[in-house]
Amino acid sequence: MRKLLFCAFVLMCFTAQFTEAATPKDTLVMAFKIDDIISLDPAEIFEFSGAEYTANTYDRLINYDVDKVSDIYGGVAESWTTSDDGLTFVFKIRPGITFASGNTLSAEDVVFSLKRVILLNKSPAFILSQFGFTPENIDKTIVKVDDNTVKLVIDKAYAPTFLLYCLTSTVGSVVDMKEVMAHEKDGDMGYNWLKTAYAGSGPYKLKSWKPSETLILDSNTKYWGHKSELKRVIIRHITESSTQRLLLEKGDIDIARNLGPDDIKGVAGNADIKIRSRAKGAIWYLGLNQKNKYLRLPQVRQAFKYLIDYKGMEQTILNGKATVHQSFLPEGFLGASAETPFTLDVAKAKALLKEVGLEKGFTVTMDTRNNEPTTSMALAIQATLAQAGIKLEIIPGEGKQTLTKYRARTHDIYIGRWGPDYMDPHTNADTFARNPDNSDGAKANPLAWRNAWDIPEMTKKTDAALLEKDTGKRAQMYMELQREHQQVSPFVIMFQEIEIMASRANVKGFVLGPAYDSNFYQYTTK
Amino acid sequence: MLQLFTIRRVKKATHQTVRLLIMVAITFFGLLFITFLIGRVVPIDPVLAVVGDKASPEVYQQARLAMGLDLPVWRQFFIYMGSVLHGDLGTSVLTAKPVLQDILRVFPATLELAVIATCIGIFVGIPLGVFSAVKRGSFLDHITRVIGLLGYSLPIFWLGLLALIVFYAKLDLLPGPGRIDVFYEDIVDPVTGIMLIDCIIAREWDIFWNALAHIIMPATLLGYYSMAYLSRMTRSFMIEQLRQEYILTARVKGVAEWRVIWGHALGNCAIPLITVVALSFGTLLEGSVLTETVFAWPGLGLYLTKSLLNADMNSVLGSTIVVGTIFLGVNLFSDFLYKVLDPRAR
Q1: What are the chain A neighbours of B96 within 8 Å (beta carbons)?
Q2: Where are chain A's structural domains?
Q3: What number is the ipTM of this complex?
């Protein structure tokens, strides 16, 4: 017995020095799923956590107020003017900005950064190229006037805020031309280097990135704006929600970004932990393929919209992580409609099905991503559809697999989540309500195309809204478009996502914006 | 005469080596071919992994051409084979780094875990197996069997989470997930990639203790499973040996009982045990996906799974080659030990 006690004592001494909780005072430690980052180059970044990285490490030409998205203000561009024909934009570059490398930011860097997006032509390049910029014309359309002035010439007189909002996205980030070109190899414009490196002027600078492990940012002492309060931000990749919760409860991390509904409930009563939430732009929807002989019937499409238990799912499966939303523009966007005309109404759905002789129901499949909450949502939908006799077969698959099928238009129903690419309403209108070519070989494949929904009339309306100069009128046009879309489209739009962040009670000032590229760390204290 | 004998031996050895090399080459070719084929047959568009869902058609097409996906599959395979033979495993889509560099980064984490786990397995599992074989039907034997059974049947992620809740959350004895506390990141230069050794080289003792504390839980957990397996196997090998006549002879000759058991019987079990240990070690080296997930351990298992789910075929193929090499290596090594230990196999 004595021996045993002794052993226990030794073991305790041994382990005592191992455990010291609490994170360093000047460091923010955050658990966050960052395995979606495939590049650190602002011309290529198009992922949620990548966008957040850019927002905190680079300056963009233009910013918007996170609390009032309609308020646009200058970033690197101090001010701007638009020509009367709406085609020419002249930006005055803010003087006195220095890159983390020590180089001074000038009009040349801005021109280089924008041209680079077009020339590299990576995934987010369309955000700029939709204004008619091409490798052939950029020398004439993206021009340095003098050291403090840049001129952009676009192809059509769009709504003026359209270009400005596009420049608030990650492709509007300004990179350090000298630094990037010093690492150029075989004419790649520094692409292979910047994929894993840093050349910006934001409040934080990159210290290190280990893919799917850690992302470490250090305060950029040369930053021109509000200097970061904390010296270092350590982002640690942790997938498991329960693991994030454990670490947070123990004080080994300051912020947990990916808690599931159960764990959020679990920490809710803890006085050391605060929970904050913010509606994000992503939308959950069902896409009904119009190649399916049942789903193409208007009554069936309508019936589906009455066969979703919106409230029930919001309260149980999603529990705070999403709110009911039934139009294609998320709350916070210009002209977003908050109308929710549909509720679970089995009798009405049955009547609609009877109109087309389908009172006995039919069988359809749904391609479903193998993750939460998608799977739980699919099961809930399966149950309510069954009440009207519709037999839903769920086909589970990995994300890339279901997406491949969706893009080939070989699905019946697809349950999806769509996030806007920039803060202008056209981003979602373009994909949900525009389909210029419905043929199988079409070049572009917006969501309307993927569901084989041929809408020449609505496409015209969407194009018209994009060209409307009067903001109030434009908002009205989107309202009407959503109202029509809500009733006739093959999209059952169900929810808008909410980001929930749990932090230690002493963490203050973390800015949660309406998009991932407007989550800011620099005001955070602890 | 002696000379002739030596020549014969050399000839035999050369013959064996050549046969071995051919075997290894064929195994590798098969391994690569099948993995490559699976990668092309699965209904996942590999271009999507590179450009994402929202890329414009031009970007999509550009990436497709750059990846050589417009070529016939057999040509793609030979191009790939060619670059592998030149030591180029391609670039990972997920990490934007050469696959070889990625693997060299993640593999030491798995190796570190596997070595410690296997040591636990050997030093606890084998004696336990011996005891329960000698004292068959005793209380200790029953306990060992229950432990073994649990090790076989409990899902490791569940046990891992439970261990975290008890030892980390409630008792506060051990640190949480990860290889080291996150604010120690990036202080020690990765020389070997094995954290404990790197800390010793850098003389960073605080980080060394931190890393050691971090590895205790996952290594013990994996070690437990390896132990359960080894103790069961040892027990059955020992029971088999203890029935043999030479044991009886030894006892009749008056050899001390501990020598009979630990020397004679266990000595003869050593040969099959080596294969068992090697197999279990090989499996651990592939990376234990679930343990690595629960403990946020950045090893090969996690890397491979993630690549697979993201259709990052270069990484998947590269990892497969590494896993294949390890398995072949461990098997060859156990064959070699076999020959050293068993005169009949020479």
Answers
A1: 38-39, 195-196, 211
A2: 21-35+202-272+505-526, 59-198, 280-498
A3: 0.71
